[in-house]
Amino acid sequence: xxxxxxxxxxxxxxxxxxxxxxxxxxxxxxxxxxxxxxxxxxxxxxxxxxxxxxxxxxxxxxxxxxxxxxxxxxxxxxxxxxxxxxxxxxxxxxxxxxxxxxxxxxxxxxxxxxxxxxxxxxxxxxxxxxxxxxxxxxxxxxxxxxxxxxxxxxxxxxxxxxxxxxxxxxxxxxxxxxxxxxxxxxxxxxxxxxxxxxxxxxxxxxxxxxxxxxxxxxxxxxxxxxxxxxxxxxxxxxxxxxxxxxxxxxxxxxxxxxxxxxxxxxxxxxxxxxxxxxxxxxxxxxxxxxxxxxxxxxxxxxxxxxxxxxxxxxxxxxxxx
Length: 321
What we know:
This protein has helices spanning 3-7, 13-31, 39-56, 63-71, 79-93, 102-112, 146-159, 164-178, 185-198, 209-215, 217-230, 234-253, 261-272, 279-285, 291-304, and strands spanning 128-130, 139-141, 277-278, 307-310, 317-320. By secondary structure, it is mainly alpha-helical.
């Protein structure tokens, strides 16, 4: 298999405009401290991502039973329930995985297809018909040298000089084109695109972009088939960029979450790390706060033992414990 066939894409003005718009939105997300989901919304976003990922592959469960399984995974009683529980568990473990290692991709597939496929986590060893809805297969995907080609695709993603937003879409297409496993390739491709994006922007750790694919699902399959037939995934990249743009726009259109003092400090320390900081640094991070509120946040965190204080009140420095 030729990697160039899989990763080739034409560039048009629509693609470039979308990339620029998405980067603008990502800058606004960072400026408004929306890169991490507030705890009370995290579960709702997770349910939406799980539901969409399963539904795109024909899953029939509605949001409510998906939410119940996300909250109580032990309640799974059949394959449809297992698809939900496994997708949720894979999302939980996704941050621990290296998006450029084939072994980690296999580990994700093991979680995703646990109890659903006897060869979970193993690359297929035989040919597979490629279908996009029509009864007649478009082509037959070979298994020849498949582990090496998958690793080449992930290495391409690691070394590519184009914007990661575009590269993540190419990997999404590449994994569906290659179909490295006997089942679960679509779900895995969407999750792996998410993992690549998470490496650069924390917001993709919770953003349920798959829900926007689900809303425009017929076009998703059509764009995949068209890219496969043409040997050019440019149109598919544009489709995915449109969905990412929509997902970010919805997050930015929502009112900013009301954060408690402990939530503000947690968010600040995630970005600041264990370096010394002063009240003015905290105020620069949260310019909407008054000096009195910032002082109160730091006093409460010091009393709770979450940060250490050094020096007098006016010139005090702080550090995470």
